[in-house]
Amino acid sequence: MANEVPPDEVLTPFEHLPITFFDSPVLAARRDDGRIYLNIRDLCGAAMIDASSQMRRIKNHPKLQAGLVKFRVPTAGGPQAQDFLALERVATWLLTVNTAKVSDEVQSRLSFLQDYLVTEVHAAFMRLAGLPRDPRGIEDLADLQRLDSALTALAERQETLESSQEKARHAWRDISDQLKAIAARVDALDDRGSTAISRTQRGYLYQLVQAWAEAKQRHDPLLSPKAAHATCWGVLKTQFRVARYEDLPASQYPAAVVFIRSAYRQLTGEPLDLPEQGSLDLDGG
């Protein structure tokens, strides 16, 4: 699937929402055709690796570069254009990350995930030709010829599949208004009865912590941006005893907002001027 968006074009997401990845919030965004993307800066922050070097790697990798887009999303400093990677390309990116350069907390899980991806790709490759997953089960090496036949058939099916995907994207555009309405109703239900914070509240906390972390990094230039973000998220989760910030009970949401604002004021001596209304449009409308 090629990237149909010019590299300098900035899109407005249909919706966006922070999700948890490697125990850290990562902003997810959806295009108006239904495709989903993850924020590259957040992904690198979750893995504790340098985002600028990863961006160079992604841009130099044709398959990964094809999944790059820019979305204009709310940040602590106002709406900004940020780089996102298509969800279906994230596994490929993870497979190419040097595990020696990630944090100790992430290294074991990333190494396991890479082994799993390699195993699953091999299994799919063998399944394509109707061969056993374990090569020791192939009795006649001549059976390997079936791989070439299967790959030829796969290429022929790809054209049909791409046509079907384009039809699906058109269908997604046709029902986007209905999906927005459904999402709004779900948010309303969350606000009234959910034990966990709502999508809107998750988005606001995400922006507050981003502002706090940026201030922390400015206050201590020796602290890397990714370390500042990891520290602030860790303090928040420890303070409220949750493994993922989206598990924060709705009843504790006001306290969490006050806690972050207080930490920001204590650090900078200034109030955290980030209005809750207007910057929280998680549906991209």
Strand percentage? 5-15%
The ordered H/E elements are EEEEHHHEEHHHHHHH
In terms of structural class, how would the helical and strand content be classed?
A: alpha+beta
What is the 3D form? elongated
Mean pLDDT across residues: 81
The strands making up the biggest β-sheet line up spatially as 1-5-6-4-3-2
Q: How far is the N terminus from the C terminus?
A: 27 Å
Total strand segments: 6
Low-confidence region ranges: 278-285
Note the total helix count.
10
The biggest beta sheet is recorded as: 6 strands, mixed
Radius of gyration: 22 Å
The overall number of domains is 3
Helix amount: 55-70%
Structure description:
It is a single chain. Strands 1-5-6-4-3-2 form a six-stranded mixed beta sheet. A hairpin with a 5-residue loop joins strand 3 and strand 4. It is α+β, with helices and mostly antiparallel strands and 285 residues long. The chain contains ten helices and six strands. 55% of the residues lie in helices and 12% in strands. It has three domains: 10-99, no CATH class; 105-174, no CATH class; 196-268, no CATH class. The protein is elongated and about 75 Å long.
In summary, what is this structure?
The chain is of the alpha+beta class and 285 residues long.
Keywords:
285 residues; alpha+beta; 3 domains; 10 helices; disordered C terminus
